[in-house]
Amino acid sequence: MTASADRKEPMSRSAVMRRVRSKDTRPELIVRRLLFAQGYRYRLHRPDLPGRPDIVFPSRKKIVFVNGCFWHGHNCQRGGRQPKTNVEYWRNKIKRNIERDRKIRKELKSAGWSIITIWECEIKDQVKLLTRLFDFLGKAGSRAKSYQIDLYPA
What we know:
alpha+beta, four-stranded mixed beta sheet
C-alpha cells in the first residue's frame, strides 16, 4: 500500500466524510450553550456574511468562530497530527482551509467586525474559555446564571 492509498473503500470513505459536519459540531454546541447560559443572545451561520460565521452578535459587531484543530490547522497536538494515508491530499486540504479562513477574516475585519476563534482544544477548560469570551464580548444580558456543561456525559 502506498503512502497515498486509502485504507477504506471509496464508498466507505465517502460515507465517513459525509458525516463530518460544518455546523452544529459538538465544540460549537458547547460554546453556544455556555454563551446562552450567561445571558448572551446571538445569531447562527449568517449566510450574508463571508464564511457563514458560527456565532454572530450583530449589535456588538462581533463574531465567534469555533474551529476544529485538525481541519483548520491549529498548532496544538490534535491539529499537528499528520494523516497516515493520502497525506498530500490532506496537507493541501488543510492548507486551503487556512488560506480560506485568512481571507474570510480579512473581509470581515474590513467590514468592521471583531473576530475571535475558539479552538476545539480550548473547550475543555470552561473557566478559561468563558473568561476569554467575556473579555471579547463584554457584559452579557440579564439572564446570566452559573452553568457548566458536562463534556463527557455518561
